[in-house]
Write a structure and sequence with these properties.
Two copies of one chain form a homodimer. Chain A is an alpha/beta fold. In chain A, 40% of the residues lie in helices and 15% in strands. The structure holds a DNA duplex (30 and 30 nucleotides).
Chain lengths: 351, 351
DNA sequence: CCTGCAAGAGAAAACCTTTTCCCAACTAAG
DNA sequence: CTTAGTTGGGAAAAGGTTTTCTCTTGCAGG
């Protein structure tokens, strides 16, 4: 009815057919022109390109996917709704994939088996090219079976059957970083306050802690296991500084390596309350480098960062190469941690 | 070569064609049987269904989408990588949509215009049914233009042009909740410590704070604006309890309503340090109900919760109805907050 | 016995793009 | 002038599903 020649309010997308018609060629030629395939006069190619440009043509990804059997889409499964762990991981994955034109379906499965299956089915229906599973805890995995799915699967910050492909942080290495940092600063009576025994990382870090102390010939105090909370940090300080101290000859610690930043915060607050200066009397190092906590402690907390975003990036890139047909060694890859030095340990080694 | 009759390691997905062949019917009939369409003997229908079941047939969502021009996919745009705000929102959205078979593309655009455009284009190419935009701050929106996209757009916890559809928290209502709670508990000298003036919510909450005090005939102390940090909480306590206090006749506050939980934590710590008891001498209420902070304060913090997950749910459902062709009134919908009572204000009103 | 109708099922188009093959026309060589 | 080769471009199939239309068969009514 009306002569609608306005620049089209982007109602329904313009198809290749329309471009071809307007340029006076067949859809085949149009496709080849836009993809740089086929042979044709430079003039023809340019004319088609211009037409496509002018019409705002964008190829329908669904049709492409159907044909190529590749959707440029991956699924990300997590059970960490509010998580400070899986979020950086996600961010890294997304970073790695966006440049390649790959989009990410985020699916939070909580810890619900049914929900997990639902999401996995949905992903498979939508023909994701691959799946990345992550979680809030390395030593637990998602309530869902990802074997024999017909698409590649990668695990990030979560540990599956041993012949899967997984990326996790090197917790032992991270712990070494912390303890060796204390050592370099001249601290000699180093304590370790950490989370519950049910976490695998607790043992990995505690063992590394013992190893370093032994290597250096320092007294090993048995790690204090508790919860991941500030309250436990408070309590642990009581145990460390009140009790008649064991083997080491009654001497109080001059450094505390904590299993996470919340414990560290509790420790710092408790130390201050009993008149001990941080870092002057006691140095403190946390774990996780949870910025919002680490920077709110007084003084700001030196902490071990697990490089989760990098871990996510690796996972994403590896998945992509798997999708591309490159084989990949099964097994668990541990990625190094990094020590973020703030002010809770005294001056940096070469300050 | 080999007789492969094993239950198929799910290599390449089974198609409708194969089901039809095995059941001895055409693909048309097979399709109709599985979708409950068309007319056929109950026996035929059942046979086809069984065959599909046995083969583990799942319709290719890409093909369906292509045909239906509906992908059962929505895009979620955010700039809040590590956010405690957008994460609950996402969770609510996802919750609302998963039951309807809709998957969510999560795209973090940081504050990068180029990245935003990249993601939006990718979404459009993948033929998302709609887009939800969220953010970390109500009064800022994403660095990307979402008008005239050809798909419905909903905003959640972020404020766009006034004739868009948006869901935000009712900050004024939340503030009223807090101040009225103090009032019911008999607190009469209520202070307000909040964030920087550049945030719209600061003004909304401050005005509500003033309104309630005026309604109740209580003295209004001018809100203290600062940063969103614990440190500011400390500092504010100094100002409130050291200075010669203004109009109200030199009396110190018996309640502090804080703009977020971190400020509240700083306030509580500072009060304790100067020997003031919480809640006995001073009551404290926070905002955001950030569990990890609220529960780490001593005593645990009463806080205003913005119901972000519910907000996400509403956004998701509204988007869906929009996609379904239902019209929706443009404008901003404010969703109520809720007060989560812990122990920082004294006994609950009817305790 | 013929007509009309309903039931059951299939053929084919449609969705949109890519790619393989094929064809026509033109050029150059013999 | 014929043949071979090249160039520019199109037809058609493929990808998997849904839906409309058509066709065949069987049965009832006249």
């Amino acid at each position: 009815m009306a002569s609608d020649t306005s620049p089209a309010p982007a109602k329904n997308p313009v198809t290749l057919r329309e471009v071809a018609a307007l340029a006076g060629v067949s859809v085949a030629t149009a496709s080849k022109a836009l993809n740089g395939q086929g042979r044709m006069t430079a003039e023809t190619r340019e004319r088609i390109r211009e037409t496509a440009q002018r019409l705002g043509f964008r190829p329908n990804s669904l049709a492409q996917s159907l044909l190529r059997r590749r959707s440029f889409t991956v699924g990300l499964l997590t059970n960490d709704t509010y998580g400070r762990f899986s979020l950086p991981v996600m961010s890294g994955i997304s970073d790695a994939l966006v440049d390649k034109g790959v989009s990410v379906f985020l699916c939070n499965v909580e810890d619900d088996q049914r929900l997990g299956q639902l999401h996995v089915d949905a992903m498979l229906d939508k023909r994701v090219d691959g799946i990345i599973a992550t979680g809030k805890r390395i030593d637990r995995h998602l309530p869902v079976d990802l074997s024999n799915l017909g698409v590649p699967v990668i695990y990030a910050f979560t540990q599956p059957d041993p012949d899967a492909i997984a990326f996790v942080s090197d917790d032992a290495g991270g712990a070494r970083l912390a303890v060796e940092h204390f050592w370099r600063l001249g601290r000699r009576r180093i304590a370790h306050v950490t989370g519950p025994a049910s976490f695998a990382v607790v043992h990995a870090r505690a063992q590394a802690y013992r190893d370093v102390l032994t290597e250096k010939g320092l007294p090993v105090m048995e790690p204090l296991l508790g919860s991941w909370s500030e309250a436990w940090g408070h309590e642990a300080v009581k145990k460390l500084f009140d009790g008649k101290l064991s083997k080491s000859g009654g001497e109080k610690p001059d450094a505390v390596f904590c299993g996470n930043d919340q414990i560290a915060r509790g420790v710092i607050d408790a130390l201050r309350e009993r008149g001990l200066g941080v870092p002057d009397d006691v140095g403190v190092i946390g774990f996780d480098n949870w910025q919002i906590v680490a920077e709110a402690t007084r003084p700001p907390l030196t902490s071990v960062d697990m490089n989760l975003a990098a871990l996510g990036r690796e996972a994403g890139l590896t998945l992509l190469s798997l999708v591309g047909g490159q084989p990949a060694e099964p097994g668990i890859r541990k990625l190094p941690c990094r020590l973020v030095v703030r002010q809770s340990c005294g001056r940096p080694p070469d300050g």
